[in-house]
Protein 1
Amino acid sequence: MVSTGAVPNLAFRRLRGQRSAGEFAAAVRRSAREIGEQVACDARYIGRVESGEIRCPNYAYERVFLHMFPGTTLADLGFSPRETVRGRGARVTAETPPPPTLHSDPDEESDVLRRVFMTSGTATMAAATLGLGLGSASAAAAATAPPDPRRVGESEVSAVEKAVRQIRLLDDRHGGDGLYRKAFQPLRAAYALLDSGTATKRSTADRLHAGAGELAISAGWLAHDSGRFEDARSHYAEALATARVAGDPALEAHAFCNASFLARDTGRPRESVRAAEAAQRAAQPLGSPRLLALLALREAGGRAGLGDRTGCEWALGRAHTAFGRGPCDADPEWMTFFREAELEMLEAQCWSALGDWPRAARHALRATRLQDPHFTRNHALYRAELTWDLAHADRAAEAAAAGHQVLDLLDRVQSTRIRAMLAQAVGVLKPQRCVAEVREFLERYAEAAEAAASA
């Protein structure tokens, strides 16, 4: 008979270090707010965990702890597997969680999604993971079906690839804030398939690695766009590790490309340059001038952040030369967003970082005029950049007009990154409130911010 005596959780106690239980509980609450969770953590709860009274945290605490300690598992934190604490087959009551839905726990969701992958094919998986029409009752039905013993094949890999495309499509239209958690679920399912190691042939395994890696990059980008920078770093590292394991230079180039972008946006320009250079080395044999153009622009952005105008101009020159060679069959599928408008936008950001505001505004204006209406999120992004550049270039009335255009789009686009850019531009414009157009814009911005805060 197994003893029911509590076993102290020494691993969790070590993580607390020199902080008191109360100080650690406060850190837990702060981390919860960072990811939109609410936990009533106090010193007593920490004591119960460390004493072993709490053998496995509930789903909300699990998400918070894994956010606080990236790359760890519950086992690393000293907890027991959930299935040993509460059987998965237990009858659902008021004390046990309901069948998984769109917002349920990622670990339990991954079990559901893995079965959906195995039994139901592309359409059902995509709907279940992205919430595109499969209700919770259907998801629960899929969860109760026994796993299909067949090996991972075309339908499962195609499901992963379709999930990647759908996430990108939704991101283009709506931005990252509302999509990150949805992307997390198919990502876990894809890696569960990888962990099963049952692909029918090498080509299938390679596609599965590529699909899982691309899902990790998509999750990383959504985290980046919604201000979850440490989560983004973790996802990009996961994609890079997948690329290295699979020997996939295209995936490696993509992971380094996004890592460079993240480093630039988080004030680490030297790291941005190194990642862009690594991406270019990986991409060199792939035969895609457009990819090399984008990676040169990533390098230019990092060099601009370092104040290296000469290096930035040299990288921009290489980007324009490569872009001018035109598209080709070797261009990666994920680069559909990289058109002339994006080139102009990224160049605008370089001149902005170097403090050449008139030149930055000129390129940002070109970007807004060239942008394809399909990319709603980028419409807002480019206009936010234009607002910022015009404000710094002492063209306050024009900046206010561009700011109005951003506000027109923010009911459809949920992006912490874009909102932060607009807020920075507002800060530059406030001293010019005496200009009628600026005053009108600032009043509208304040009203929109108040409405968003109270929503």
Protein 2
Amino acid sequence: MRVGLFVTCLVDLMRPSVGFAAIELLEAAGCAVYVPPTQTCCGQPGYNSGDRAAARALAEKVLAEFEDCEYLVAPSGSCAGMIKTHYPELFDDAPALRARVERLAARVHELTDFLANVARLARVPGGFRGRITYHDSCSGLRELGVKGQPRALLARMPGLELVEMGDCEQCCGFGGTFSVKFGEISGAIAERKCRAIEASGADAVVLGDLGCMLNIEGRLRRRGNETTKVLHVAEVLAGKSGR
């Protein structure tokens, strides 16, 4: 099947290894992966800030780039949730475009959901030895129902022990522009999340959104924690986590 990979802005700019790991996993599942060279942003920052015109322009761009793919997959519940959940409302005044967007939205999946429920990845290619805890990122969990999928894939890895932290479903405090507009609140939420991670005794915290990763890792390091790794689930599943 032909799968379009929406790499995401943060992955492209901050941690390209996540994108390459996603490609490796999709190919291991038998997919032909297409990465449009012109792709940029899903439009969520503008959408969350009230700039619907900018968000719509980017939505039209994404539609043109991925419409011919059988599926659109993103290593981010946040970006996948934006496309799947919020794109259609941007075209309430354009029924023909809305219909096309809805057809694309129906084929959008977060990476672990696609691997577990659509491609049904038979064998996880990576290896990891150690104890991890999993943070459920807000958009993936609440908009897309991503919860058991990453855990099911991780459970197939010999030597990996998953321990659940307290309040694993609570926000890390990032929330995109929320962390900029409400810095003190965001910092307090991140502090609570980091305490839960450390209390779990895990060697690494694993998750599915790079925004959450950057926020959690930054807070852990400012707390003086230089040992707990912060890893994207794609890196772990593909064996690109350095363990």
